[in-house]
Specification:
The chain is α/β, with parallel strands linked by helices and 380 residues long. It has a single domain (44-329, 361-378), classed as Alpha/Beta hydrolase fold, catalytic domain (Rossmann fold, 3-Layer(aba) Sandwich), CATH 3.40.50.1820. The chain has 11 helices and 10 strands. It has helices at residues 7-23, 126-133, 164-183, 200-211, 227-233, 242-245, 248-254, 259-262, 284-292, 306-312, 320-328, and strands at 71-73, 79-86, 94-101, 108-113, 138-141, 189-198, 215-221, 270-276, 299-303, 368-371. It starts with 6 loop residues before the first helix and ends in a 9-residue tail after the last strand.
Length: 380
């Protein structure tokens, strides 16, 4: 007689195996678990305040603890890899990879954020590193909250989706705190910053771009959103947990972080919105709503088949468009004022309107590419 496991049980088994493997690593490589006793809390973060109702840092107080010297791998030809461990809240150290081209002074920066449950393994692969830095660009890689090495010290019933408000809000805050950190280095062009996000990472990138004008170019692939519909119909949601995620109290918590509401507020100067029409995590009606909510001037790309998508993402990256748009931006002058770094203390988010693009757009239709101004009939 066979044993049938629910999807959530399978997921929990996988997480358990991962956790067991993790605990077998050397102690120095392990992350500290969240203290169960409040008296054991890290006193460095006793004044931290974080508002999970908004992607903005205006209602939060996060302070970066001075990081230790990074691990540096400079054995590659054409680039070097730096691994930092950054932290601005208790029990949540964050591994941040900086892949930087050698011989390029103050290169533009591209932040990469793949969605749950992706980890940082790709940033250890040479073929991936080479593709990220091709053309003289620096790349930054990290994972969202409650993902990969950041999932620890929690009951297994608490995961990215069950704690979606926390996952999205803290990750959007992380994007801004990472930009603050990068701005202190002095060896990157922080006037030319782009961000690519996929899945839940795309949602986080949208939230961050809506409140931080430092992200000049935004490229997102299959963001999540329209929470009531997504939770009720997405195949990603475990069936045995779905009833909890369609309750009014759950939806009320995530409603301030609704992708449909933040999409029109994006402040990036150039935006590309990509969708896999064959992907099922995000239901078709949700895809259509999200597509309709993008700002005017957005380039929309629709992939109808898996082969079409693979051709566009040969090394799990598709950064040519991003690099072209960043390259078209004015270079920072050596005598220009240093970019203003938003303070971690409560501050008001800049009320800047996103400049609408007036440049002529490419009308290529393979794959389905069109601009937001085009009529819907040109979508595919």
């Amino acid at each position: 007689m066979g044993i049938r496991l629910l999807s959530s049980e399978i997921r929990k088994i996988r997480v358990t195996l991962f956790f067991l493997a993790w605990t077998m690593l050397p102690a120095a490589a392990q992350l500290p678990a969240r203290p169960t006793d409040p008296t054991q809390a890290d006193q460095r973060f006793e004044n931290v305040v974080e508002d999970w109702t908004t992607p903005s840092l205006s209602g939060s107080h996060l302070q970066l603890i001075p990081p230790l010297a990074p691990f540096v791998d400079d054995t590659h030809s054409g680039y070097a890899v730096e691994l930092f461990r950054l932290q601005w809240r208790d029990s949540d150290p964050l591994d941040v990879y900086l892949v930087k081209p050698t011989g390029v002074k103050n290169p533009p920066v591209i932040l990469n954020l793949y969605g749950y449950p992706a980890d940082t393994a790709a940033y250890k692969m040479e073929v991936f590193q080479k593709d990220l830095t091709k053309g003289g660009f620096a790349a930054v890689g990290f994972v969202p909250a409650l993902t990969g090495h950041r999932y620890h010290g929690r009951p297994m019933k608490e995961w990215f989706l069950s704690e979606l408000q926390e996952s999205l809000a803290t990750s959007a805050h992380d994007v801004q705190m990472i930009l603050n950190f990068l701005a202190t280095r002095g060896d990157l062009d922080m006037t030319r910053v782009g961000m690519f996000g996929q899945g839940s990472g795309a949602t986080i990138a949208i939230l961050a771009s809506a409140v931080d004008p430092r992200i000049k170019v935004l490229d997102v692939l299959d963001p999540w959103g329209d929470w009531p519909t997504w939770m009720a119909t997405s195949e990603f949601v475990p069936k045995d947990e779905r009833p909890d995620y369609i309750k009014p109290e759950y939806l009320k918590k995530v409603s301030p972080l609704e992708t449909l509401d933040w999409l029109p507020k994006i402040q990036a100067k150039k935006v590309r919105f990509q969708q896999l029409l064959f992907e099922t995590d995000t239901p078709v009606p949700v895809k259509e709503k999200l597509r309709a909510a993008v700002p005017a001037g957005t380039t929309v790309v629709l992939y109808k088949t898996l082969d079409e998508f693979k051709a566009a993402f040969p090394y799990s990256t598709n950064l040519d468009w991003m690099k072209n748009e960043l390259g078209a931006l004015p270079r920072s002058s050596p005598h220009a004022a240093k970019p203003t770094v938003p303070q971690p203390t409560p501050c008001k988010s800049p009320s800047l309107r996103r400049k609408q693009s007036t440049e002529a757009k490419s009308k290529s239709k393979s794959p389905g590419i069109y601009d937001r101004e085009d009529p819907p009939t040109t979508q595919v």
